[in-house]
Amino acid sequence: MIRKLTLEDKENVLSYLYKESTYNIFIIGDIETFGIETDFQRVYGEFNDKHELMSVFLRYQEYAVFYSHLLKFNVDYLTIFKEDPFKYISGKSELLDLIQPYLEGFKQKSMYFCKAESMKVINQEDENIHLLKTTDEASRLYDLLVRIDEFDYSKSDRKDRFIEQKTSDQKMGITLYIEKDGMIVSSVATTAETTQNAMVVAVATHPSYRNQGYASRLMQKLMTIYMIEKKKSLCLFYDNPNAGAIYHKLGFETIGKWDTWSSI
What is the mean pLDDT of residues 154-159? Predict the structure, then answer.
């Protein structure tokens, strides 16, 4: 049986998801931050005859995430897909492979999934690293990110929307940056922060300032904040082998692959 979850299911679904907390960081983070049901978020669960959870499907704005501890996909979810449509769906690659035949017109992006619980490099104090707090900082960060082709910020996000989200979502993560010559030249951020971990996103350096170690310095600081101060692990995706080599040197280990299918 598949049904929409309610507040009464919150403890049960989080207990299920935390059994594989790394892969479920997005679903856990959204449930812990926003709850089970809002005007922009819904959570569905599949139960067996013993009323045990078998899979979870999260709908957040135009995004969807699917998870199951089993390598199975119940086609009864297709009714929900039709009634509650999405533009993006993500999950473990092996699970998305089962869903892909039903994603007509969607395009695939596959990435490596990494996790770090300890640091291989000890962070040194760096007074040039700043924590983003203000709308002015968010505006200048946007000016950096629109220069990074793979992020597609100029195509998918208006600047005012980006600034609003970056300054209002700080409870879900943080953003660190380095400023040089009057502009932000490198940044790293986290999102989907839970009681155990957080997802690293938007590791970016201005094209004119690359190969100077800025991203590594930011990552070391970020890892210090989370692993030493917050006692949490970090996760990230990568598809660039050069970036992957840097992350591995810092202490990240590849644990699997993650797919996102997009209709746009």
Answer: 66
